[in-house]
Structure formats: structure tokens, C-alpha cells
Amino acid sequence: MVATQQPLEGVSLAMFQLAQWLRSPRPYLMFIGFALFLGFWYMAVDVWKLPRFAQLPGPDAVIKEWFSRNPSFGISLFTPDYYLDIWASVRRIAIGFVLATALGIPLGLFLGWSKTFREYVFPVFELLRPIPILAWVPLAIVMFKGLETPVIFLTFLASFYATALNTMLGVESIDETYFRAAQCLGAKRSQVFLHIVVPGAMPFIFTGLQISMGVAWFSLVAAEMVSGRYGLGYLIMNSYTDVKYPTIVIGMITLGLVGYATSTLVRWFGNRMMQWRVRELALSEAA
Amino acid sequence: MTRALSRSILRGTIAMIVFLLLWELGSRSKAWLGFPLPWISAIPAPSSVIVVWGALLHDSGYWQSCYLSVLRVMAGFFAAMIVGIPFGLALAINRTAYGVLFPTFEVLRPIPPLAWVPLSIIFWPTQELSITFVTFLGAFFTMVLNVIGGAKSIDVRYFQAARSMGSSSFDIFRRIILPGVLPSIAVGAAVGMGITWNVVVAAEMISGGASQATGAGGGLGFFIWNSYVGGSYPQIVVGMISIGIAGYLSSELLRALGDRVTPWLRRR
Amino acid sequence: MSAGAIRIEDVVKVYDPGGASILAVDHCTLDIAAGEICMIVGPSGCGKTTLLNAIAGFHSITSGAIYLDGEMLCGPGKPQAAPGPDRVVVFQNGALFPWKTILENVAFGPIMQGRLSRKDAEDKARHMMADAGLSGTEANYPGELSSGVRRRVEIVRALMNDPKVLLLDEPYRALDSLTKSVMHEALLEIYYKNRVTIFFITHDLEEALFLGQRVAIMTTRPCRPKKILDVDIPHPRNYSILTAPRFRELMEETVDAVHEEALKAFAAGEKEGA
Which CATH class for the B52-265 domain? Predict the structure, then answer.
């Protein structure tokens, strides 16, 4: 960047970055990659009809179904059921994730902050952690009855562990020097917690939240596939048992898109909360 | 043993005992308190879990389930390492390969591994292969991501130093990139192992023990599901704890292996 | 703002007495007058930071005592001092809070102690920063500024609390020598306005002789004063004194002592930052 120019902001910055991107080989390589993937899929299923691939739904079948106003298998961009399924999954994720964050962050903060608390609580926490979330499915069904609550519980549990652990690591990652500086400057323990521990752990907390969102989706889909009504996981499983193969892929693609959108939301939120880090990182990359 | 260490062990032990007591009390809350606590009373009590577990230790079917699950985890996990590490390295080294393949990889990654189960069942001839494939997918994405991240974070000065001392490209690969990536592989392995167990358990629950005749199916995931369906609730907990132990042991094994392979990371 | 005289009396510090038993400070006695710039020179790892940490209250001492203006900071019955705004530390790698703006950083101390309202603290901060030539950086985050500017901000942050003593732990170590010379003159300027006691640790003899009124050369671990001298070059000083004959004489007197300890430390394979 030329030092004498005014730095670009906002829209003009975005346009500049877009122009830079288009000038590099990256978008064209990316296009080639997608083309290869889709091409192979199409050829293997529809043209060459390779032995195992022939039974899979091909890209044209999926696209046709997804965009059709009157889909033969009942789910497309134009059917309300599609959006009902999306909403069901998103709703469960939202509840589970928000609860997990509300409980996990404070727990993680205390685990990192207070040695006494950690010595009592962490062993029990670690004891339960090796049990895979999905192993809880039957117990969750036994405990909570109904169809919604077990699914939300599993999403919550997975998300909770990831958030709490990363928050704790975040507190532990704060350089000791900051605590000493705060002590010199006369801060009391509660002030240190508010002004040092919480902001200092933020980068780790947000990484943790992204991971947590990922595992939430992972658990949600599994829980929906095993026992649920509505939702994308349920849609995929159901389409399989009802032999509506293109719909399976529609479900998968939708999952990918929605999952990506939620992760981006978390990341975007993190960047807003931690302006200082964004700027710091930008400067170090430019250096 | 220092006082501080023994104190922390004591505290941890106290906490666990309190936890078990609360669990026992909660499960039997109907009898002890007069009314059942909302969700906790449905959980089988630790005492009954221990009893049932004791009986199962003599049951060969139990051990076979353990064995099957561990086998699947290992198979899927090592497949993920064998394919994932070279793939990740190739992407890290070659800019063109990265540009072509990484975006597609990133687009497929948000799709949860279990969403692939139906397609996997359609595609693969046997149930076993379809479960292994999904297991493989779970760990594969993590492993590749970690390898790429690890390769990128190798300080560029190591490359410069090597070149100035006359290393060939192959030498650089063998002596700079490979060791530099090993710690990330270790981390990827640890995370991937956790995902793998989750996937195996879920896949076993979903595909069920439908083909008992052929010997496929089974495993601890199926064991847990079956216990639920059959109404033997303490067995559910036994299954959960068994998986937990197996998962913990496999993670520890990996960590020990990782330590041996990266001695320079050990603290003095 | 009161005195700030420090008395370090026969202090011994042993790390990990039940285990590795490392003697870091060995019967060290040192007097620092109020308002004096006292430079502590020694090779890396000799234990000088331990002394600073003891005064600041981050470490305990095994025996001996440390007094501030006659009051015991730590000693028999009270092995560790309580950290406080009367003895503020400026750390080696900087400790400005990265998540707060410069203004928030500088105003932090008085606000936390409840001595000033937020508005008053920020006003005072702006004032002191202007005095130090740092106006215009208030809204930045520390990550956006150069290390030289960050160090100066940290010193202002410390001074906001009207401390008796300023404890500086090799603050300019990571800076290049050109920036260092600017930092030195800036520090002296601040000192002339505030006359706070300065306890400055460094391994750079030239820096010590330039800034200090008193220089204590420490032995390599375990640390005790090997040679103490008064630098009789008058204040105010500027960089021209580096070539003055008296400066060169003082260097001659002391460079052997420092070099001797440096060789010993090298032979002992000292790790950094002890």
C-alpha cells in the first residue's frame, strides 16, 4: 500500500479486496476445483454409470429436485416443509448453543480463575468428558421424555463442554505479567476479574464458540437421525428410508450452508467484540 | 509428593465422592425424599450400575462389543491419517493444488459426518465399510486442517536457513516440513480421535445390529441402544462408561505416541 | 508526594527450598535514597529481577527485610510484601493491556483505586500524556503502536498513581539502540518533573552510567552488590555526556567488574530471564 494515500474504508476497501482477489489465480483455481468435483460426480453417476456410483443420486437429479416447484419427493426450495425442517434444526441449535454459552463461559472463567474451584470441580468435569456426546442419546431419552428436549440437551452438552474448556484455557493463557501490572496499579480481585480475566480470555472464548458451534451441529444431526421429528438430520434419515435419494443430498447441502452461516455469524460477532485483536493481527500480517 | 499436589488430589477425590453420592441420592430420590427429582431420578443409580457391570464382565457378548467398537475406531482413524496427512501436506506444499482443492474441501467440511451415513450405506457394499467410511470422514477433515495449519506455521526462517546451507527440496521436505508438522498432527490426532468415537457410536446406533446373522453391526453403540430398547437402563450407563474408558485409553495412547515422536517438545 | 527511600537489608532469597534449593539473592544490602535514580547492573539470570520482585511484592524473601521510608514492606513475620501503587513496576516486555485503549490503560490505576472519577482520571491522563509528548494516541490500541511509544505510555501509566518508587525491569531491553537513546532522554525529562525514586535494572553499563546517580554492579547468581559507585556527573544530563572524559573514566572503573561477572555467568550457562 502506498504510504501517502488515505487508507480505504468500508465499501471501497471491500471493492479493492475483491479486485485483488480476481487478479490473483485463486478464483480460477477454485472454479476448476468445483468443476472437477461436480464433473466427476456427474460423470460417475450419470454418464459412465460406475458400479457403486450408479445408485447414488446425480447432480442433475439433485438440482432439478431442489429448484422444482413441484418436487417429486416433496422437498424443494419452494415447499414450506423444507423451511420447517431448517427452522426446527436452527431453533434447536439456538437454544442449545445459547444455554451452553450462558453456562459454559462463567464455569470456564471460574475454573481458570480460582485454583480452589478448579481442584474441586475439574476432576469431575474431566471424568465425564471422555464419554462421547452421542453415547448419551438413550440416557437423554430416558431422562427427558418427549422428542424435543433430548435433542436440545445433546446439542447443549456438546456445546457446553467445548465452550467451558476453551474458556478455561483462555484464562490460563493470559500472561502472568498482566495480573502483576494490575496488582501494582491497585486493582482488587473483583476488578482484576472484570478488567483482565474476561477481556484477556476473549480470543480463546471466541475460538471456543466456533468449535462449540461445530460440535453442536454435529450432535444435533446425529440426535435428529436417531430420534427426532422434523429437522435436517431427520430429513436426511427419512429420505433414505423412503428411498428419496436426491432429497438426501438436498438435506446435506442445506446442512453445510446453514452450518457455515452460523459459524460465520459467530466469527463476525467475535470480530466486533475484539476490535483490538483484529487490528493487531492486521498489522502483524502487513509487517 | 508436595503438599500442594496431595491437597489437590484430595480435593478432586472429595469432589468425585460427593458427585457419586449426589447421583445415588438423585436416582433414588423417590424413595429417600418422597418425590422424584425431575430428570435425575430417571438415571439408574451407581450402585445398580456397578452390580450390572460386574455381571457383564463375564459376558463374552459385552467384550465382543468393546472389541468391535475399538476395531472400527482404529480402522477409520488410521485410514484418516494415511489419507489425510499426505493430502494435507500436498495442499500445504503446492500452491496450485491448494487453490484447486481447498475451496471444495472447505465447502464439504461443514456437512456433519453423520449426514453422510445414508449416502455411505447406499454406496458401500457392506455395512462395515459404510460405518468405517463415515468414521474416516470425521477424522479426515480435522487431520487435513491441522496439517495445513501446522505446515503454514513453520517459521519461514527455517526454510531460509536450510536453503542457505544447500538443502535440496526433498531434504527440506524430510527435515523441515515433516518434523515441523508433527506437533500439529499430534493435535489433529487427539481431536480426530474424539470425533471418531462419537461417529462410531452414533453409526452403530443408527445402523443398528440389524444383520446379527452376518456378524456385522453390534459394537458398544448398538449395545447401548439395545439396552435402552430392552429396558435394561443400568446397562446403558455401563455402556457409556465403557466407551468413556476406551476413548480415554486410546487418547492417552495417542498422546504417549505423540510425545515419543516429538521429543523436542518435552519440557526440560 | 513523599519520599521513597528504600532500604534492602541483608536479604536472602532461596527458590524451592524443599527441592532444587536455588540461592538467588545472597545477603544483599543496599540503600537507595529518596528521589534517587539507582541502576542495578548485572548479567542475565543473576537474581536482580528477584530483588525487584521482592520490593514489588511478587515474590517472598527467605530472610532479611526491605523497608520503604522506614516502614517494613517485607521481613521477619511477613515474608511477602503486598503489591501496590506506591511501587509501580514497568515490565520488560511491556504490560499495557492489549484490549484497552491507551487512554483506558493510562487512567486505569486511579480509577481502580477509587481515587479519581473516570472523567477526572481521563483528564489527568490526557494532561500527563501531553506532557510526555504522547498526545494523539489516546484512542489507539497498544497493538497498533511501536514499542518505544508503548514503553513511554507505560511509564506515564505508572506515574499517574503518584508512586514513591518506579521499578523498571530492563524496560528498554527489546528496543534498538537508536530508540533507546530517545527513551533515555524522555525518561530523564519525566524524572526531572517528578523526582520519583527510580530502581532500574539493566545489563547495559552505558545505559546505567548515563541515567543513574548511583550504580550497583551485582555479582552473577547468587546476587549481591559487588561494587557500588556514585556517578558524579551533574543532572540535568543529555547525550553529549557520553563522550565527556568523566564518563569515560567511570566506564573504565566499572567495565572490568561487569565483564568479570559476565564471563562467570556465561560459563555457568545462565538461562535468560531469571
Answer: mainly alpha
